[in-house]
Design a protein that fits this description.
The chain has one domain. Helix content is 5%, strand content 45%. It is built from one helix and five strands. Strand 4 and strand 5 form a beta hairpin. The longest helix is centred in the first third of the chain and has 4 residues. It is globular and about 35 Å long.
């Protein structure tokens, strides 16, 4: 089993997409492995660009991550709070 890698967030912004502002969901159930969130982050060690944060959700809790360098890097919940 592979070890979970965490990203170090250097900047965070809430940038909703139009369908999110309208209260729509990405899937009918609300569950999935690459759900688009309203969060954008910059992470340490990679190019200084804004990256969309995605969520894995199959129950009452979600795990947040970004894709960088072809890898899934997880984001701690505390890095997404205002």
């Amino acid at each position: 089993m592979s070890e979970v890698e965490y990203a170090t967030v250097t900047a965070h912004a809430d940038i909703e997409l139009k369908w999110q502002r309208l209260g729509l969901t990405q899937t009918a159930s609300g569950y999935g492995s690459k759900l688009t969130t309203r969060h954008m982050v910059k992470i340490e060690g990679f190019r200084d660009i804004w990256r969309r944060v995605y969520a894995i959700c199959y129950s009452n809790a979600a795990s947040f991550y970004v894709v960088a360098g072809g890898k899934r890097l997880f984001i701690r919940d505390c890095d997404l709070s205002a």
